[in-house]
Amino acid sequence: MTDTQWEVLSNQAITVAGVVYFLALLSHLVEWAGLRQVPHTEEVTTGRTALFGRLGLLLTGLGGLVHFVALLGRGMAADPNRVPWGNMYEFSISGAWFVVVIYLATYKKFKLSWLAPLVVATVLTVLMFAVIWLHKPVAPLTEALDSPWLVIHVVSAVIATAAFTLGGLLVILFLVQERIEKKDAERGVERTTGYFSRVPSTKVLDRLAYRMHAFGFPVWTFAVLITGPIWAHEAWSRYWNWDPKEVWAFITWVVYAAYLHARTTAGLRGKVASVLALIGLATLWWSFIGVNFFSTTSQHSYAEGASQVQLVPVDSSPVPSP
């Protein structure tokens, strides 16, 4: 296959993946609509709801496979072939794919069927945003990005971003479930039907969110405080340059460190820790999107209308990204 054919395949595959994820979302919505009036104490193993639940999971897995083909085609379309992490579009679709991978990998162990609609909706939203606003034609890597550290640094950042995004969804559910449980306690009733009757208790959600963040934090630490500075030193001869993206990535690290500390401190668990996690998620996505679009000084920024990464050199040295 030629480079052009690989790029066409990638574009077609990401479109198909979006359609498959959409069908998966519809399947899960039908499943949960069927469960709306069914008491959570009843096991629904047959019938339409169970069928649509299995179909949604199958379509999510199929979407992940097609999604991987899109990433593969993106890398094979470049000359020379490379990893598909050269710009914001590629980073976004890679991050969305890792969200699917982590979700499917933990689905059975943590019984995450109740999380399916939110996960698929999030992935679909990221893909739509990437295709509509971030897409760029395949281009060779700039000299700054053509480094073994691209694989090491960026893949760890992508994995951590996916884990933090899933953790953020769990934290949002925790806060909503906490509010619902408080209202039910005030009324002296127990919720037995509806979506949130099947979402785990706040204690379970808090524990799952902590585990997801505890997984992502050391990976983010490796990306931000180890591989990032090493790559920067290789390119700039300096480990730290006070670039806006570096600063915001470090702020994200500090906030998540505060969250994990608060989560292990009895007096700060629950709502306080959850708010810290959401602040961390906000700083994470700001360091990724906000800095790239709104900063005029960041040497990690991508030119929005360019066909490839535009980097501002410092002392005529190349700059690693993202």
UniProtKB/TrEMBL annotation:
It is a multi-pass membrane protein. Its main location: membrane. Keywords: Cytochrome c-type biogenesis, Membrane, Transmembrane, Transmembrane helix. The chain crosses the membrane at residues 12-30, 51-73, 85-105, 112-134, 154-176, 208-232, 247-262, 274-294. It is found in: Membrane. Residues 85-295 form the Cytochrome c assembly protein domain. NCBIfam families: cytochr_II_ccsB (TIGR03144). This is Cytochrome c assembly protein domain-containing protein. The lineage of its organism: Bacteria, Bacillati, Actinomycetota, Actinomycetes, Propionibacteriales.
